[in-house]
Amino acid sequence: MSRLNIGLLDRIREESSNVQRRVISKSDAGFVMARVGDGAGELHETFTHQQIHDLLAANVIRIDRGWFEEGRARARLLAGVSSLNELPIDEANEMLWRQYYLDAFLKREGMNKSVKRTDKCIAETLRAIDAERPVTAGRCDQKIESRRPPSARTFRRWLRVYEDNCFDLLALRKHYRKSGNAFSGMHPEAERIMNRHVLAYCDERRKSIANIYNEMRAEFMTVNDEREQAGKPVLTCPAKSTLSHRIKALNAFEVYASRCGVAKARAKFAVVGTGLDVVRPLQHVQIDEWTLQLHTIADHVGLSDHLTEADRIKMKKERVKVCVVLDLATRCILAMRLSPRADAANAIATLAMVVTDKNPIAKAAGCLSDWPMTGTFGLISPDAGSAFIDEGFRACVAGLKATYENAPAGLSWLRGHIERTFGTMHTTLMPNFPGRSFSSIADLGEYKAEDRAAVFTRMLPQVFVRWAVDYYHHTPHAGLGGETPYAAWQRLTATYGVDAPPNAHQRREIFGTDLDRALDQRGLRACGVYYQSAALQEWRRKVGDTTVCLRHDSSDIGHVSVWIGEQWLTVPSVRDMFRGLDLSTWLTSARDLKRRYAANAKIHEKIALAAVRAISAMAEDAMRRTSIDATRLTRDELDREERHLFLGFDIVDDVDPDDVSLKSNILDGGVAVKSATTPTQPIQHPQPQDGSANEADDFGLED
After folding, report:
1. Cα torsion 598, 603, 606, 610: sign
2. From CA 692, how far away is CA 680, in angstroms rounded?
3. Is residue 300 classed as helix, strand or coil in its secondary structure?
4. How deeply is 271 buried, as exposed, middle or buried, from its count of CB atoms within 10 A (0-12, 13-18, 19+)?
5. How many helices (H) and strands (E) does the chain have?
6. Which pLDDT belongs to residue 691?
7. What end-to-end distance do the CA atoms of the chain give, in Å?
């Protein structure tokens, strides 16, 4: 277990009760903490290091780094939010754009004494920064959007705010949201008349907004005639859009109850579901990508065991990219991801792996050692590759409260540690495989790499995990004076500890995929799974049926994070079977269920659970669930699955176990399955609709 390093200005907050604590003192045994707020500052509590680990793993607490620091508190006050994740993507990108200029200027100012904060020098420096910005490759007919750099006066204002608030990105948020007149310019008498007609909408006669507007206009005409006779100025009738806006701002539940009755309102806003759950080495890291000098065979259907050498030569060849995060203090590999393409999605997935427990991956790969290198880093320095300058990647770094320091492109010696790691990978791992492409034509000679390809791409994850965990981490490293990376990690974490990683809910809020979904009485539906909670329905009763933004984590579809008003709300799945389940296993199970029961729109929960258990029990399932090459689905891909795979697909409660229609039952190769509504028993699957034999191994991977 790595000792966690919690600072004196960090906030430790309980997820469910919102109790906040801060560290008073710490030792080898653990922490002494004091509660914050509610007059509880003198109540001290003790927590061992193991207790903190367990609470984080169980998602009971979250740790916000530097929360009580004065500058960061000021930045939150200025921004009106506590994290970059709480802002719209366009506004977050605007702040990241400002930070890019500020960090680049401060770096030049620190390295070059000739850089001054005069108007002339600022303008020249900003032009030089613009000239060095990397431009991604692309087609000549593609348009490239760019922005003018800020003026010296504007930049100096940004710089002052940035420095005054501990260089916190949140301090760079625009104040446009505070613009405008907060008070109505409407005459008080006109305001009174309009408010009366707004309330007239809440009537059992159910008048339309158009009818109410006409009645309001007629009253304004009568009132103005009387005011003219009295020598008073006439009143301006508000526009129909103003009336409509005021009506829509009313409480949705109260409006519906007034127009349709309380009983119907309770039915419309009722909660529907099966039940509601009431729930340092890492100072500097480097990230980079490398194209494996190896030709592999693309086998996505699992036929490798049945192919001859001639068949393998004919199959499609591909080159795989590997993205690695390396800790500079210990030379440990913190994360590793394989992908056929180098893009921001793979870089973000690799970043998320740094703060995720990797011991299940090592176990699934059959490693003899563990992989304890987990925690939150302080500084990350990628190169200027398109995947690492992407706004989404930088937003994730900002969400971890880490510093992003971009290294100049083409200067690989500035990233020598990770480049040396790739060199070690090339010299110790690649020679073991046929189809090696070598690093130059001279080295390649007449060796036909593509014709000698014999390794399937799907074999690589296990190979690379075992190489990193069992070989690389336990091999003496020259850069560590002959000490192994694993030993260096154990020694340094015992001395300094590591910053605590975010819990699962925080990871989802930082790295999750944004989706827009409709909210109704059944809650939210994403990838065929319903999500529901009392707090979510309380929000719905205020705003009515609406579309909300949620963040979805493909590694655990048992919860989603929903943006309600000004914060993220963690919402669990309605059915317990999805807790801890990864998206890949669920999609595979759903495809198989849809193939088998194409005629049925609704699938019993017992059948769905049996399918999930059967897919999970496959020989390679553990590797697939923790695979370092698992694809991170994009927003569009998830939406496409929702439209096609889950169209007309629904899971319903199990019927009475004595029901004869279900007794022909649900086979799972003798695996005992426990349903959410039935006792543990051997499960069998029903016969397919086409009458073909029903084998347990039919639960296979299908496109």
Report:
1. positive
2. 28
3. coil
4. middle
5. 25, 24
6. 38
7. 40
As a whole number, mean pLDDT of residues 610-618 equals: 72
DSSP bridge pairs for 284: 379
Residue where the block lists tokens 């939406």: 639
* Euclidean distance between CA atoms 697 and 699, whole angstroms: 5
**d(Cα 626, Cα 232) in Å, to the nearest integer?**
77
Which residue, among 468, 379, 380, has the nearest Cα to 425 in the 3D structure? 468
Q: Other CB atoms closer than 10 Å to residue 561's CB: what's the count?
A: 24
Strand partners, 35: 21
Mean pLDDT confidence for 371-398: 90
Angle among Cα 176, 181, 183 to the nearest 5 degrees reads: 140
Contacts of 336 (CB under 8 A, 6+ apart): 322, 323, 324, 325, 350, 353, 464, 465, 468, 628
As a whole number, mean pLDDT of residues 536-556 equals 89
User: With helix as H, strand as E and coil as C, how does 526-547 read?
Assistant: ECCEEECCHHHHHHHHHHCCEE
The tokens for 189 are 């008498």
CA dihedral 75, 77, 80, 83 (to 10 degrees): 40
Q: Which residue has the tokens 């060796």?
A: 447
What are the pLDDT digits (tens) for 389-431?
A: 888 999 999 999 998 987 665 555 556 788 888 888 888 887 6
Element (H, E) at 255: helix 252-260
Instruction: Say how far apart CA 468 and CA 679 lie, in whole Å.
Output: 43
Residue pLDDT, tens place only, 482-508: 999 999 999 999 999 999 999 999 999
Q: How many CB atoms lie within 10 A of CB 607?
A: 26
Model pLDDT for residues 126-147, shown as the tens digit of each residue: 888 888 776 666 677 777 777 7
pLDDT-based confidence at residue 600 (cuts at 50, 70, 90): low
Q: Provide the token pair at 324.
A: 């690695």
Q: What is the residue extent of each domain of the chain?
A: 4-66, 84-134+147-176, 188-268, 284-498, 504-578, 586-698
Give every strand in the sheet of 333-339, ordered side by side: 333-339, 321-327, 284-291, 379-380, 403-404
* Burial group, residue 309, by CB count within 10 angstroms (0-12, 13-18, 19+): exposed
Per the structure block, which two tokens stand in for 329?
């203090």
The reported pLDDT for the residue numbered 601 is: 62
| Domain at 188-268: CATH architecture | Orthogonal Bundle (1.10)
User: What residues contact residue 627 under an 8 Å CB cut-off, 6+ apart?
Assistant: 461
A 10 A CB-CB count for 56 gives: 21
Under 8 Å between Cβ of 424 and 379 = no
Task: Determine the Cα–Cα distance for residues 488 and 497; give it in Å rounded to an integer.
Answer: 12
* pTM of the predicted structure, to 2 decimals: 0.70
Tell me the two tokens of residue 671: 């695996």
Closest CA to 45 of 34, 59, 58: 34
Q: Which fold has domain 284-498?
A: Nucleotidyltransferase; domain 5 (3.30.420)
Q: Are 572 and 594 in contact (CB under 8 A)?
A: no
Q: Token digits for 442?
A: 């001279």
Residue 38: both structure tokens together = 């509610």
Q: Is 559 helix (H, G, I), strand (E, B) or coil?
A: strand
592-596, long-range: CB within 8 Å, 24+ apart, which pairs? 592/698, 592/699, 592/700, 592/702, 593/649, 594/645, 594/649, 595/702, 596/685, 596/688, 596/689, 596/698
